[in-house]
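Subject: design request, 273 residues
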């Protein structure tokens, strides 16, 4: 089956939220996509649940897994890129539920030579705790529009969607600020920097900031769009690692002005490389 978009979802054991993501992917207004689960070492029980979910989905699903040896998200993302079947890739984190126009917006905005970065709607703690796949299927998130718009969470305005046909010429995209949990890029553009730098073995610094910096050095900037390409992001405590072992790697790449990393994808098995 030919697909227009590969949605790469980074997960680790959290099947409850993956079920909610699948529930919204079932409702997407654009249907010609596959899902590639980039699984950073989930347990056998969770893997079995994911396989059952894949068997019931209306869209094709690949499950790419490696052994749990600590945080190796960038490595499994690269493996998912290699496995993906589409020319255009959209990256989504396992705690982000896509709004029903998410795939359509990314497809309409795609541009060779650019990264398309969407935004997130930060859920409140109450809504995050209450959500279930059944509520998501019934449209509960749409009913939360006003509570989210007037919440005290950062960037609450992102709950608003302005259709592309109304915004062209009125709202210009910003530049920069790639969100690792919500961005789209042509595979050929990502391969120009050889994907993610696999030396990053800790969350926070480096995962998306490094990718954005390296892409910019090869002439692929980020276009940041508000009010489209939106995801609902689970409220949780951000994990900080101090001192973060990623920082010296990030500083080295910046000092050497690295674009293409030798610590990325093994492209020997890819077609046309």
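Subject: RE: design request

Done. Sequence follows.
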């Amino acid at each position: 089956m030919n697909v227009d978009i590969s949605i790469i979802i980074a997960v680790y054991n959290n099947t409850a939220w993956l079920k909610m993501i699948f529930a919204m992917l079932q409702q997407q207004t654009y249907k010609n996509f596959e899902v590639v689960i980039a699984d950073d070492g989930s347990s056998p029980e969770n893997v079995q649940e994911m396989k059952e979910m894949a068997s019931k989905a209306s869209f094709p699903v690949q499950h790419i897994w490696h052994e749990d040896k600590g945080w190796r998200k960038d490595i499994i993302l690269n493996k998912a890129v290699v496995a993906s079947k589409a020319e255009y890739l959209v990256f989504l984190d396992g705690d982000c539920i896509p709004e029903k126009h998410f795939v359509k917006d990314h497809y309409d905005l795609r541009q060779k030579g650019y990264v398309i970065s969407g935004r997130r709607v930060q859920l409140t703690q109450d809504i995050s705790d209450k959500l279930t796949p059944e509520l998501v299927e019934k449209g509960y998130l749409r009913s939360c529009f006003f509570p989210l718009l007037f919440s005290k969470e950062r960037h609450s305005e992102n709950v608003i969607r302005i259709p592309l046909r109304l915004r062209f010429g009125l709202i210009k995209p910003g530049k920069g600020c790639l969100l690792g949990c919500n961005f789209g890029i042509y595979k050929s553009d990502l391969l120009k920097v050889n994907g993610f730098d696999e030396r990053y073995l800790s969350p926070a610094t480096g995962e998306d900031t490094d990718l954005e910096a390296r892409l910019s050095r090869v002439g692929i900037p980020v276009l940041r769009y508000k009010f489209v390409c939106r995801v609902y992001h689970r409220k949780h405590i951000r994990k900080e690692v101090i001192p973060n072992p990623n920082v010296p790697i990030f500083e080295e790449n910046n000092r050497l002005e690295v674009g293409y990393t030798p610590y990325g994808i093994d492209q020997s098995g890819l077609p046309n490389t």
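Residues 126 and 154 are 15 Å apart (CA to CA).
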